[in-house]
Structure formats: C-alpha cells, structure tokens
Amino acid sequence: MAVPGTFLVPLLLLLCGPGPYPAAAHSHPGVECVLFNEEYMTCMWGSREMLKVNYSLYYRYKNMSDKVECKHYLQDQGVRVGCHFKQNELIQFQPFHVVINASIGGKTLEIPSEYMLLQDLVKPEAPVNLTIRNISNNQLQLTWATPYPKARCLEHAVKYKSNKDTRWTELSVNGDVFSLPSVDYEKYYTFYVRSKINKYCGSTQFWSEWSVPVFWGSNSTSKGTVEEQLYWYGIHTVLVPIASCLLLLVLVILLVRMERVWVILMPRIPNPSKNFDELFITHNGNFQEWAGVPKDVVESFKPNYSENICYVTELPPKDSHEPLWDSSNHAPPPVPGPPAAPSEPSPYQKSY
C-alpha cells in the first residue's frame, strides 16, 4: 500500500505547482496603453481584483540605453494598476518598450512586452460645436470642430436617425463637413460625430467618444430631448395647478383680512328709507306730526275769512233777439259762418 502513495505525492505537486511564482506570472494580464488627444497617456495592466501584488513599470524608447521607471502610478485601494505619462514624457514615431516587474517573495519576476508606436495609440477627443444649416430647400449641412491639435490627421464618422427610423445610419467623412441631401421637414433628426486618426498619420483603431447630439426638424424648437419633454410635462401638469391653487388661497386670505380696507376704499351707499318708516307707518304721511310741529302753529296757517260769491251778467246788443243768459246758463254753441262786421259799441248793463 505504500507504493501507490509514492506516486500520489508527485502527482499532487504537479497539479498544484511548485509555488506561487509561476501562478503569478501566468495570471498577469496584458498591458494596454492609450494616448489621449496627444496630451497624456495611460498604460493599464489590471485591476485590484485581478492583482495580488504590486507591479513596477519600466519603459524606454529605441534611442535610450537605460530604462526609466514610471513616475506616476495609478492605484486602486493601494494596488498599482497602471501608469500615467505626462506630455513631456511622450515621443512619437519612435518604438516604445514597456517592462513590468513583480516582486514576489523576495524574488523579481520580469514580464517583457512588445514594442509599441505611440502614433498608433492615439485616441482623439470627441468633436464639439456641432452646427446644422439649411443650404437648400431639402439639404442640410452639418459642421463641427475638433479639439485634436492635428485636424488634418483625423477621419470622422457621422451617425444620424429620425424619429421615424428604427436604425442608425453611419457614414464616414474625411473633412469636418457633412451634407445630407434629402430631408423630410416632418421628421425630427438626431446627429452624432466621432473621430479617429486616419491611415496617413497612424494605424490606431481607437475612436473618440461620440459627441454631444444635435437636433433638427419640425419639433427641434418645441419638443427638445426626452428629458426636456418630461421636465415641461411635470411643470404643466403638477406645478402649474399647485401654484394656481396656492395663489387663489392667498388671495382669499387677503380679501378676508382686508375687508376694512375695502370698506374704506369702496364705501357703501347709505339707504335712507329706514329713516322714514315712522313717517309713513305711524303718522300716515303727516309731516307736521312726524316733524313735531305744534298744533297752534298748524292752525295759524289755516285761513279764517270768507268771500261772497259775485255774479256777473252781460246784456245782448239791441238788434239781437237772442235770449238773455247769465252765468248760471251754458253758453250757446257757436254758429258757423263768415265773421261778422265790426259794429259800434253798445252800452252794457251790469248789475252787482
């Protein structure tokens, strides 16, 4: 039974390995270096979850004899995960070599890397200042600016979609102008632009991030983005009714509290009818009694004398045969005919 045991020990040692050193070398991830807009560069080789020990990065260019250690390490909770290179440490169009050393158990494990060219590692910044113009009835022109210092080394990609499309349309553009020959004024378009180093300046595959979108169409001024729609919908449906109710409540409170001010500013017209109720109800319209005039004064205004009736009689002319009449008889009706000629006055007899 001892013989089989002698074969198990080497087998376990073979499976588990002689120690942690080969395992650390095998678990080392690749190095990825990116030159951002030719302003700075980062070389990353892992994360805190993947790395158990600290690594040291050394680099050199082709014309340098000695290696230089990284001056600005990037750390994740105390574990080195990358290196940051400033602009004055970068030299393009020269082979760039990186060596990573790992110290494990008092021994140094060196992991070499291949030579790289920095012009192939450039990732430009996203385009800015996107502008849309109408150059004809149905044609649009999209222009933009780039923060990259060498604009002639860039190629661009434009993607656009209308509100009625289900897929994006992406086209390559060499310059910084894009023309869309046919547009529908009833649609709402969205445009994005990104950039990359062209084949004449490098062979990088790093595209910039997509730019901030720009919009055009029948709803571009009133509809806006989805966030703007939700913002204005909330204002119109929630804030406006609440504000209106609060304003109405404040006005009601002010009216109640300022009733005396309203009475001063707009006084009521008095009604004098109540002051004469006693005149018409109690005294039956007798003003003297209502006013309290003494009876002797009232009697003094009554007449205390009498006049005799005077009767007047008019005698007819001598030539007339009409019967006499007096004031007790009615006057005879007038007889139609020509007017009588004036005659001499005749004496009248009057009796009193």
TrEMBL record:
Residues 126-224 form the Fibronectin type-III domain. SMART domains: FN3. It is a single-pass type I membrane protein. Residues 331-345 have a biased composition (Pro residues). The keyword Glycoprotein applies. GO terms for cellular component: external side of plasma membrane. Residues 320-352 are annotated as: Disordered. InterPro entries: CRLF2-like_D1, CRLF2-like_D2, FN3_dom, FN3_sf, Hempt_rcpt_S_F1_CS, Ig-like_fold. It is found in: Membrane. Residues 1-25 form the signal peptide. The chain crosses the membrane at residues 230-256. Keywords: Glycoprotein, Membrane, Receptor, Signal, Transmembrane, Transmembrane helix. Gene3D superfamilies: Immunoglobulins. Pfam families: CRLF2-like_D2, CRLF2_D1. One of its GO terms (molecular function) is cytokine receptor activity. Belongs to the type I cytokine receptor family. Type 5 subfamily. This is IL2RG protein. It comes from Rhagologus leucostigma. The gene is Il2rg.
